[in-house]
Amino acid sequence: MKKIVLLIITILIIHTNMKAQTWYALANGTSDYTYTVCADTNLNMMYAGGAFVIANGLTSNFAAKWNGSVWDNLGMDMGSNYSMIGTSDTVKSYCVYNNTLYVGGKFLQAEGFTAKHIAKYNGVDFSNVGTGTNRDVLAMAVYNGDLYAGGKFDSAGGVSCNHIAKWDGTSWTPVGSGLNNEVRALYVWNNNLYAGGLFDSAGTVACSRIAKWDGSNWTALGTGITTDTSMTNQGLTAAVNAIGSYGNELFVGGMFHTAGGNADTNLAKWNGTFWSGIGTFGNNTGDYVGSICTYLGNLFVGGSFITANADTVHNIAKWDGNLITDLLHGSNGPIVSMTVMGGALFVGGHFTGVGTINAFNVARWAEPAGINEINDNISVSIYPNPANESIQIIINDRSSLVKIKDVLGNTILSTYDRNLSVKNLAQGIYMVEISNAKGIQKMVKFIKI
Q: Could you give the C-alpha distances from 160 to 141, 155, 197, 210, 380, in angstroms and in order?
């Protein structure tokens, strides 16, 4: 009798969890392509940017914000004619730096100010970022206390900066010799900055589509991402569109068939020494991976692809470290950006439906973290502590975000990973901040020796 009761309870739990995994629309969404979504966890705000002029019926001119319940614009007009309507101007990237939202893309003005391809927003008004760049800003990331921007430009603040530049809050400076072609993705992992795009060199260093910056020098990741014969015959060239991490490995997504000489279609991983893959993401000409994100201990991959390996997934898939699964029929169009906020995964792209519901160019995916995985009390332990090479963070809450901060409160690393390399950190005292989906936080001291 007890076995029957337990079986029934187990079935009910599984059924409940399956029902709880679902898609949600964000009201009426946006009116056109959403190229970027970005979470400001301090304000509990999700920002969307793209080619749209309307967000849920509200004039938004390519930049809008969602507070969990309603849409609002950023109180601005951008573009050569202020309104952007009828122009080709777009917002392509966001980044929160020093508690300020930075907006990158293709535009020349913001609220009447000259703001060439990059602007900053303080929650009320926009202002310029120096004299900006001479072409599109496509990606941004914070590294070692500075804002890094990448894109199509070769000048920032009037200084020669080949496709990547650094902003310290006052002025622009180049990043070494830069890169010789477009930068589409920037990501910080294990205390290094990684850039991805269309380039094949950084100064005299050969680095095909992906490169690492350690604060002083550029280095390659093996032979990188290369264009193979089949792509050449189709008139295509390899590109990296997205970079992320999962476990102790760096993941790279884009349009390619070869990584480090291995046959890997559109997604590959780098362990610091070798390239390998987890499957084939897309089988058709023009298929690509456009976004990578970690959520509730799983890796999520978005883009334009119908299949992952032999499974039908429709433009987004989940990998748990072993199996690739779909997200209730995915979306009916490309997903090119993802972010996590408030215990949910937000996606942006060019679609009119997700799962079985209507959702326009932006949507939210939520699933249960599991029994007792989102806790009112966070239990944390760090091992070893003190440490020199790496640490393991053991948390009783899989939804928790981990931030490593220095004694001044500056965030050095923000991740959902639990096994972290600390070998490049300077010796001293750091704080590990843990925050879960309920907004509960806990701080634990960590000593680097």
A: 20, 4, 19, 21, 46
Domain ranges of the chain: 30-365, 380-448
* Cα–Cα separations (whole angstroms), residue 328 to 22, 82, 267: 7, 40, 21
pLDDT band of 81, cuts 50, 70, 90: very low
The answer to whether the CB of 237 falls within 8 A of the CB of 208 is no
- Candidates 250, 292, 240; CA nearest to 271 is 250
What is the per-residue pLDDT across 252-272, written as a single tens digit (0 to 9) for each?
Answer: 999 999 999 999 999 999 999
Name the nearest CA neighbour of 240 among 192, 275, 191.
275
Contact 158, 174 (CB under 8 A): no
Mean pLDDT score, 89-107: 95
For 15-44, what is the mean pLDDT? 84
What would the mean pLDDT of 304-313 be, rounded to a whole number?
94
Tell me if 114 sits within 8 A of 107, measured CB to CB.
no
- At 110, list the tokens: 């913001």
What CATH class does 380-448 carry?
Answer: mainly beta
For residue 137, give the nearest of 147, 146, 155, 149 by alpha carbon: 149
5, pLDDT greater than 50: no
Identify the pLDDT of residue 388: 85
Does pTM surpass 0.70? yes
Residue corresponding to tokens 């050969």: 206
Closest-CA residue to 245 (of 194, 181, 306): 194
What tokens were used for 189? 């992992």
Class of domain 30-365: mainly beta
| pLDDT per position as a tens digit, 392-447 | 787 766 557 888 887 677 788 888 777 788 888 888 888 888 876 555 567 788 88
Average pLDDT, the chain: 87
Whether 400 and 411 have beta carbons less than 8 Å apart is answered as no
Peptide bond preceding 334 in cis form (omega within 30 of 0): no
